[in-house]
Predict the structure.
Amino acid sequence: MDDAAHSTISNGSTLVQKDFNIDDQLKKLEDSISSASMPQDLHDKAIAMLNRLKIIKSDSAFFMEFDSISRYIEWITALPWSKTSQDILDLAHAKQVLEKNHYGLGDVKEKLLEYLSIMILKNQRHMEGADRFARAPIISLVGLVGVGKTTIAFSIAEALGRKIQRIPFGGMGAASQLRGKTRLFPDSEPGLIIKALRRAGTNNPVILLDEIDRVSQDARADIMGVLVELLDPGQNKNYTDHFIDYSFDLSNVLFIATSNNTKDISTAVLDRLEIIQMPSYTDQEKITIAKNFMFPKVLNESGMTSNDLVIEDPVWQEVVRPLGYDSGIRSLERTIQGLVRKVVFYQLSGKIPQGQVFRVTLQNVREYVPQW
């Protein structure tokens, strides 16, 4: 087969000839291997694969082998084997981030700051030459829907100056989604853990394992088995994805898990988690959050200002509990968004005047906030 071989690709019903220079493609793979920072034995494995391609480049099976090997080399050269981001070792900064992003939750913030204190001390001592701690604490945030579990995880990442990647577990139906598929399968690809590391670009990101209690019932046992390996400090130093087929050290990763409850999480997984219970918000906390954080944000997103719309203080009790008690604040934000949308709609429709402050009062609130 000529080096300037032609591969045939299908474009609907039309067959298109596309030039494919084999030597150029092999050179690109060789350059990517040479420039990548990876373990030496994995480097040698990639070179051996590349040499095999060079040997069979005149064979009819070349293109099938090339597709498989080139995808594999692309993945292993893109992973952050030795790239580590610098942590922000500042407890005052961490406290400032938590206070900025979250109102209330005093006990939760204190516990998080305690865990971060250990991480900061560990890193400081490591920089001074002392032995490194085995791992960061693996935090599990447990609480009802809408109480801020996911946003707390993003705040921890911000406090440490780390990248964060979220892996949703809701409805996950197979352990292979986490661990990947072996390259023997035509549709094989790495699992969600390896994909998260590649997107983060560092080997020490925060990885949020979101809603680990909501996996498919049929796959629960297998997925919990993978979680044990992910979260166990004695095992995650040598985590092996089936596609990559080479161990990756996850001991630098800060894992944060969230769940609504713990009854659907295996005992073996729970044993490896530092559980922090997320409390529900009181009405007074919701009013403060709504007035000082949510309402200004929603006004800004809608193109309005405080000169256009005012919600009087006595009205907030109706806003935070329009349809009864709710543990979180997600529905509260939707209520405020709905209120602002209706005011804008009425203004543009001529039902209420524009160009002056409109006030939501106890007398007209039922028109703007849903009620039973």
User: Anything to note?
Assistant: Residues 1-18, 130-134 have pLDDT under 50 and may be disordered.
